[in-house]
Amino acid sequence: MNHTLILGAGPAGLAAGHYLTQAGHTVTLLEGASAAGGFARTFTHGPFRYDTGAHRFHDKDPEITRELLELMGDEMMQVHSPSQICWNGKYLNFPLSPGNVARRIGASTCLRAGVDLLRARLIRREAQENFAENAYHKYGRTIADAFLIGYSEKLWGVPADKLTPAVSGGRLKGLRARTMFYELLRGKRGKTEHLDGSFYYPRQGYGQISARLIRSIGQENILVNSTITRLAHDGHCITRVELANGETFSPTRVINSIAPEETLRLLNPAPPEELLDRARTLKYRDLILVALFLNKQRVSNNASIYFPNPDIPFTRLYEPKNRSLELAPPRQTCAVVEIPCFAGDATWSMADTDLEALVTDELKKLNLLEMSDVMEGKVHRLRKAYPVLELGTDAVIEEIRDYLRRFANLYTVGRVGKFEYTHVHDLLRQGKELATLLSIESVETRALDNV
User: To bridge 431 with a disulfide, which of 15, 107, 159, 186 should be the other Cys (CB 3.0-4.6 Å)?
Assistant: First the structure.
């Protein structure tokens, strides 16, 4: 029987499974955790619901958006909720609006930022080798230092000059010196429009997307608590997948969303030790979520608030209620902060109660809540939230991909699997394109079998 085995039931695995199922393929998903969904899950705590991150679905790919809306039906809402950056006690629009920046940072800083930006644009550079160079070239030193460099170093845990330019994400591409001065002089009449505050979101949390994908695939085709112990091969194909419970699979093809170094470690026969050593240099940023359940109606009106100040231990706060009113009681709310760290470091090892106290104290200093507002807290530790895109990782990933290309029936998808910083719409696109490719291959194989 033509059977596709998918390793991992996070967003990437579910997306691939959904589109392959729609195309008529037989699939089985293996998930090591106790539930499918990966980083697209929604937690429940009493009457509160909150996601594994500040998730939103932006209309970046019209075809994928249309198909997701069809899948979700009435459960998907269009939400208009802004995000802001908290900088020196002031709140600026996110993504950065030139006029808003100009008015909020003050005239002297604005002038310095404009001059920096002009100078940066006048200096012609063939290429920016790292993220710091890229940020300074695009935005000038004043803006980059205030909003990009410190935030990125806190998020990724690596100096900005050791990160690749790919981490910038293009979120500040609207900043231009001329536009900044124009909007400053024109006031609100000159304001440019940013669409980041308009997005799609499920009524009961982002995990509903995973739930609909699971329903499309069939819950019976997703095996949770399935720890993979071996990927046996003959040098050309993956021939057998073995689990810790003794179960084995001999799939026609394998779609892999697990980490590159983990994939290599599971291969039997093993890859060259030099390649395994190279793969071990890859880093992932882990994430601590601290959810505070508050006896107040709202913390703010923002979907998310970003904190570039390196002295503040978290990078982002999101308030689920501002995505969907169904995620909290009418007179109460939940605030969730994200603390990037590395598993095993001092932050990761802090007691839950200490993390809750740390976050509560910081939010009080920021005038976002009072101690008496906090009813309860909950801490979650999430492994491998972000692949760290350091200089040199591209070469390592290409070496790994080159080695894995020898396995004709192995395909790689996903943020962790491909070691890329991607979003759910990207993962759905990957799944759709892979399903199309495999359907073509299946037709060609059947044609050859009939010859």
Answer: 15
Of 168, 193, 218, the residue that ends a domain is 193
C-beta neighbour count of 138 within 10 angstroms:
20
Helix (H, G, I), strand (E, B) or coil at 323: coil
30 bridge partner residues: 7, 223
Examine the domain organization and report whether 100 and 142 are in the same domain: yes
DSSP character for 197? T
Place of tokens 């499974």: 17
Q: Are 21 and 432 in contact (CB under 8 A)?
A: no
Distance in angstroms (rounded) separating the CA atoms of residues 411 and 31: 17
Listed in sequence order, the residues at least 6 apart from 22 whose beta carbon sits closer than 8 Å to its beta carbon are 216, 435
φ, ψ of residue 179 in degrees (nearest 5): -65, -40
61 pLDDT more than 60: yes
- Which of 65-79, 186-200, 297-311 has the weakest average pLDDT? 186-200
- Residue 187 is predicted with a pLDDT of 52
Task: Give me the domain span that covers residue 239.
Answer: 3-40+206-282+390-449
CATH number of the domain within which 348 lies: 3.90.660.20
3-state SS class at 95: coil
What's the pTM? 0.91
pLDDT digits (tens, 9 = 90+) for 297-317: 999 999 999 999 999 999 999
- State how far the Cα of 266 lies from the Cα of 372, in Å rounded to an integer: 50
Instruction: Please report where in the chains the tokens 């399935």 appear, as a residue.
Output: 226
CB-CB contact of 417 with 258 (8 Å) = yes
| Domains: count for the chain | 3
The whole-number average pLDDT for the span 62-66 is 98
Identify which of 415, 420, 414 has the alpha carbon closest to the alpha carbon of residue 393.
420
Given this model, what pLDDT does residue 195 score? 44
> Would you state the structure tokens that stand for residue 99, as one six-digit string?
């006029």
Report the distance separating Cα 214 and Cα 60, nearest Å. 23
Rounded Cα distance between 69 and 58, Å, is 12
